[in-house]
Design a protein that fits this description.
single chain; Citrate Synthase, domain 1; Cytochrome p450-Terp, domain 2; 2 domains; three-stranded antiparallel β-sheet; binds coenzyme A
Length: 374
């Protein structure tokens, strides 16, 4: 079928098939393996969603319990990886810490006959929070934390417990769990496509995930939530925000957390995360940040017809969960690793090398001058 409109950046180009998720024909919705994102965010835990993505079905209660126990058993880090994390600079970007941790683990527990793709997917999903927070605490206070946290059986619970050193409330666990569900999978986004390109060369699992992390890191993709938070923090009232955003739009600056390549009439995940952010703001007694966020949302819609994407209110929610801004994008890695892994499995199941062609815009063939003639 011929492609319509401006296809630069591969916009609107169909680049393959997937049974994992779709934004629907109109680009208005999101389903993971046919289940609506609203139903999943409300009724399924992150672990159920990971199972659905990796194994193709929703787990029964027994399967889920077994799967959670498996992930729990995979949280500990090898001593050599702890040493690597200790050697990284305290000033490192934490996304780079996960990228390096993933690559390093690939040298210690390589893919092979005794370690298949599902085993590596589960290992990475279970150990990314451990890597991140081991590095975080070691460089912040010199503490070598125990990462297994048996009393905190879900990824959301473990993450908040390891971060704070105390048990999180059930509201906080539920909010982070839903945020992880919302971030888990999103069709052929830039980082997922990167993973598929890498495994299409028959490269290994860790290389694909490492590449995916690199692609996610940029502010036009996974880094937008941190950009949104830094923007929100610049204002102390909705009126100040309105004036500031107007100035930015006049200068044609991009507002992080708004707009989307696919959703031009609103991101279906945004109202879900907004409602969670609102509950968390109310619990914290906030009268500033949430109203500022809403004013920015109103302005972007009226001035530019732009809607918030998942990142905008994720930033607000994470802020009220007490998560430092520089850990927002690593959290995205922790969740999206599940979608990447599922796409890697799917690509491998029906692989063909991904190698598009380019429209050449360089010089016509010309004579080659020898070095002394230039
Ligand atoms: C997500 C994004 C990269 C999509 O890009 P895209 O599909 O290539 O859309 P375009 O950049 O072509 O945007 C179309 C128009 O809307 C404007 N626009 C898009 N997002 C904007 C934003 N966040 N702030 C201000 N203007 C924006 C563009 O400047 C462009 O205006 P123009 O036609 O006057 O030049 C883009 O919306 C963006 O940069 N958003 C901010 C980063 C972000 O939140 N990323 C997370 C995505 S989940």
């Amino acid at each position: 079928m011929p492609q319509q409109g401006n296809t630069s950046g591969l916009a609107g180009i169909t680049a393959g098939e997937t049974a994992l998720s779709t934004v629907g024909k109109e680009g208005l919705d999101l389903t993971y393996r046919g289940y609506s994102i609203r139903d999943l965010a409300e009724g399924a835990s992150f672990e159920e969603v990971v199972y659905l993505l990796l194994y193709g079905i929703l787990p029964s209660r027994t399967e889920l319990d077994r799967y959670k126990n498996l992930l729990l058993s995979l949280r500990d880090l090898p001593a050599a990886l702890k040493t690597v994390l200790e050697q990284l600079p305290p000033t490192a970007n934490p996304v780079d810490v996960l990228r390096t941790g993933c690559s390093a683990l690939g040298t210690m527990e390589p893919e092979g006959e005794d370690r298949d793709a599902h085993a590596i997917a589960n290992r990475l999903i279970a150990s990314f929070p451990s890597m991140l927070l081991y590095w975080f605490h070691f460089h912040r206070s010199g503490k070598r934390i125990e990462t297994r946290a048996e009393a905190h059986p879900t990824v959301a619970d473990q993450f908040l417990f390891l971060l704070r050193g105390e048990a999180p409330s059930s509201l906080h666990v539920r909010a982070l769990d839903a945020a992880l569900v919302l971030h888990a999978e999103h069709e052929f986004n830039a980082s997922t496509f990167t993973c598929r390109v890498i495994v299409s060369t028959l490269s290994d699992f860790y290389s694909a995930i490492t590449g995916g992390i690199g692609a996610l890191r940029g502010p036009l993709h996974g880094g937008a939530d941190e950009g949104a938070m830094r923007l929100l923090e610049r204002f102390s009232t909705p009126e100040e925000a309105e004036a500031g955003i107007r100035g930015m739009l006049e200068k044609k600056e991009k507002i992080m957390g708004f707009g989307h390549r696919v959703y031009k009439k609103g991101d279906p995940r945004a109202p879900i995360i907004k409602s969670l952010a609102k509950q968390l703001a109310a619990e914290a007694g906030d009268r500033t940040l949430f109203p500022i966020a809403e004013r920015i949302e109103e302005m972007l819609l009226s001035e530019k017809g732009l809607y918030p994407n998942l990142d905008f209110y994720s930033a607000v929610a994470y802020h009220f969960l007490g998560i430092p801004t520089f850990l927002f994008t690593p959290l995205f890695v922790i969740s999206r690793a599940s979608g990447w892994a599922a796409h890697i499995l799917e690509q491998r199941a029906n692989n063909r090398l991904i190698r598009p062609i380019a429209t050449y815009i360089g010089p016509a063939p010309r004579p080659f001058p020898k070095l002394d003639e230039r």
